[in-house]
Design a protein that fits this description.
The protein is α/β, with parallel strands linked by helices. The chain has 2 domains: 19-40 and 265-360, Aspartate Aminotransferase, domain 1, CATH 3.90.1150.10; 43-262, Aspartate Aminotransferase, domain 2, CATH 3.40.640. It contains 12 helices and 13 strands. Strands 2-8-7-6-5-3-4 form a 7-stranded mixed sheet, sandwiched between helices. A 4-stranded antiparallel sheet has the order 9-10-13-12. A two-stranded parallel sheet has the order 1-11. A hairpin with an 8-residue loop joins strand 12 and strand 13. The radius of gyration is 21 Å and the shape is globular. Bound molecules: 4'-deoxy-4'-aminopyridoxal-5'-phosphate. 4'-deoxy-4'-aminopyridoxal-5'-phosphate binds at residues 87-89, 113, 156, 160, 187, 189, 215, 217, 223, 228.
Length: 361
C-alpha cells in the first residue's frame, strides 16, 4: 500500500479560484471580475503574437535578453537585474521557494493577494497575516509581526482588492527598519495605473533588501498570455535565475510582451481611459450611497451596507449579465470588487447597482 503524502502545509492551501467568466444560460456577459484591460493588447502586440507562429518548432530564448532590454528602456530599470516569469505569480513563487521554507515565516497583509499565502505554504513556510488599517497596509503592524523566522514581506501597492496605496515614505521606512534577513517584496501588478508611480523601482536601486514584481496581465492586456517580471538586487536576481526553468517563457510570450511594452502610446491611452472611467465610477457609486476608497488601480472596491446587501447585489448583477467579484475570501464580505471596464460596461454596472438599490427601498 503506497503512502504518498504531500509536504506539510500543502493541504492547507485552498485552491485559487479565478474570476467567474460565464453565467449559466447567458450567451453574452460583461466580465468585470478579473481586473483585465477591457481593450486587450495593442495592435502591435497582436501582430508580434501572430508573427511568432513561424518560430514554434524552435526552443525560445533562455535569457530573455530582448524583453529585458525593452523593459529596461521603458521602465527605466537595469535590464541585468530583471527576471521574467510566467506571470508575476511565478516570480512570487520563485521568491518563496528561494527564500522561505520549513521553519520560516512569510508576512502578508489582511486583504493581501491570495498567492502570497499559497506560495508560502507551497514552499513549506508559515504564512503570517498582519492586519491593515481601514483597508490600507499598516507598516508598523508589519514591523511588530517580524520575528527572527521572518524571511519575506509581501505588499501589493496599489493593493488588490482594496485599490489603496501605502505612501512611499512609509515603504521606505519599512525597508530601512526590517530585520536584516527579511526581503521586502513590492508587488506592482497595478503600478502602471497609479499616475507617476514607479512601482518602487527607485527604492529597489537604493537598497539591497527590496524586490519589485510587475505584470503584463493588467495595463498591457495580456492576462491570457502569462508574462510577469521582477526587479531586484543583483544577488537576489541571480538566486531566482538558478531556480527558473530555462524555457519558462515561450517565444510567443517574449515577443508579444516586448511589442506591448514598447507601444507606450497605447499603454498611455489605456492608462488615461482607466483613470477617467475610474473617477466617473467612484463618483457615480458614491452618489448612489455606495462607499468606496480612493482607488489607484483598474478596479473599484464598492462597500455595501453589509454582507447580505453585497451578496444580493452581486446576484442581481448576474441576472443582468454583469459579473463582478465577491471578496469575502479577502475578509471584505460587505464589498464587491468591480473592474473598470470600457465606458458602456461602467455605465451598465452602475445603472444596475442603482436599480438594485432602488428595488431594495
Ligand atoms: N499580484 C497582484 C496584486 C494581483 O492582483 C495579480 C493578479 N490577480 C498578480 C499579482 C498576478 O498576476 P499575473 O500572474 O497575471 O502577473
Amino acid at each position: 500500500m503506497a503512502r504518498i503524502i504531500p509536504q506539510p502545509g500543502i493541504l492547507e492551501i485552498a485552491p485559487y479560484v479565478g474570476g467567474q467568466s460565464r453565467i449559466e444560460g447567458m450567451a453574452e456577459v460583461v466580465k468585470l471580475s478579473s481586473n483585465e484591460n477591457p481593450f486587450g493588447p495593442s495592435d502591435k502586440a497582436r501582430a508580434a503574437f501572430a508573427r511568432t507562429v513561424h518560430t514554434l518548432h524552435r526552443y525560445p530564448s533562455t535569457d530573455h535578453a530582448e524583453l529585458r532590454a525593452a523593459i529596461g528602456e521603458v521602465h527605466r530599470v537595469d535590464p541585468a537585474r530583471v527576471i521574467c516569469g510566467v506571470g508575476s505569480d511565478e516570480i512570487i513563487s520563485f521568491l518563496c521557494y528561494a527564500y522561505a521554507g520549513p521553519g520560516t515565516e512569510v508576512i502578508h497583509t489582511e486583504h493581501g493577494f491570495s498567492m502570497y499565502r499559497i506560495s508560502a505554504l507551497g514552499a513549506g513556510a508559515t504564512p503570517v497575516e498582519v492586519p491593515e488599517k481601514a483597508r490600507v497596509v499598516d507598516v508598523d503592524a508589519i514591523l511588530s509581526a517580524c520575528t527572527d523566522r521572518t524571511r519575506l514581506v509581501f505588499i501589493a501597492n496599489p493593493g488588490n482588492p482594496t485599490g489603496t496605496m501605502v505612501p512611499m515614505h512609509d515603504i521606505e521606512r519599512l525597508a530601512a527598519s526590517l530585520p536584516g534577513q527579511v526581503l521586502l517584496v513590492l508587488d506592482g501588478a497595478y503600478a502602471e495605473y497609479a499616475e507617476g508611480f514607479d512601482g518602487g523601482a527607485r527604492l529597489v536601486e537604493s537598497r539591497d533588501n527590496v524586490v519589485m514584481t510587475r505584470t503584463f496581465s493588467k495595463l498591457y492586456g495580456l492576462g491570457g498570455l502569462r508574462i510577469g517580471w521582477g526587479y531586484g538586487p543583483a544577488p537576489v536576481i541571480d538566486v531566482l535565475n538558478r531556480i527558473r526553468g530555462p524555457f519558462n517563457l515561450s517565444q510567443t510570450q517574449l515577443e508579444t510582451a516586448e511589442a506591448a511594452v514598447r507601444d507606450t502610446d497605447y499603454a498611455e491611452r489605456c492608462r488615461s481611459e482607466n483613470a477617467r472611467l475610474r473617477a466617473w465610477m467612484v463618483e457615480a457609486l458614491n452618489r448612489l450611497g455606495v462607499a468606496t476608497d480612493a482607488s489607484f488601480a483598474n478596479f473599484v472596491l464598492a462597500r455595501f451596507a453589509g454582507q447580505a446587501q453585497a451578496e444580493a447585489c452581486e446576484a442581481y448583477l448576474q441576472t443582468q449579465g454583469l459579473i463582478v467579484r465577491k471578496v469575502a475570501g479577502y475578509k471584505l464580505p460587505q464589498a464587491l470588487r468591480i473592474t473598470v471596464g470600457d465606458e458602456p460596461s461602467c455605465r451598465r454596472v452602475v445603472h444596475a447597482i442603482g436599480q438594485f438599490l432602488e428595488g431594495e427601498e
